[in-house]
Design brief:
Layout (H helix, E strand, L loop, with lengths): L29 H15 L2 H17 L6 H20 L9 H6 L2 H20 L6
Helix pairs in contact: 1-2, 1-3
Length: 132
């Protein structure tokens, strides 16, 4: 028998360029993502924002603990993982909300967003010289 060289598919850099979107990262499981979020807050936010953010993360993860819809779970984990990346890279400061995300929000989510906006504006009026 004659041995032949078999060609197998292997990863290559062909077709990749800076104009293409980077490959999506694998989603972290809920517990490691939860820990990563709290760690990101501890390392990158001031005390006041950290307290608010930590309590929000805890309540959201508790509220979604028993969700069984896989599409909802993937969306939840994906958005929180993107948030963690933004906080860790400080790319969230001064960033505006994406209109597509706002269009997809439920009435309850829009109400929560409005309440958050009011709380931030109230805080700004009370202490205009503090760093926001």
């Amino acid at each position: 028998m004659r041995q032949t060289l078999r060609l197998f598919a292997s990863p290559s850099s062909l077709g990749t360029s800076s104009t293409l979107n980077p490959a999506p990262l694998a989603l972290l499981p809920p517990i490691p993502l939860y820990r990563r979020l709290l760690r990101a807050h501890r390392n990158h936010l001031d005390r006041e924002k950290r307290v608010l953010g930590d309590s929000y993360i805890k309540s959201e993860f508790r509220a979604h603990r028993n969700v069984e819809n896989p599409i909802h779970i993937v969306g939840f984990l994906k958005e929180w993982q993107m948030y963690a990346q933004q906080v860790e890279g400080d790319s969230w400061r001064g960033e505006k909300l994406d209109t597509d995300k706002i269009d997809k929000m439920s009435d309850q989510q829009l109400g929560q967003l409005y309440e958050l906006m009011q709380a931030i504006q109230k805080k700004g009026r009370e202490d205009p010289y503090s760093e926001s």
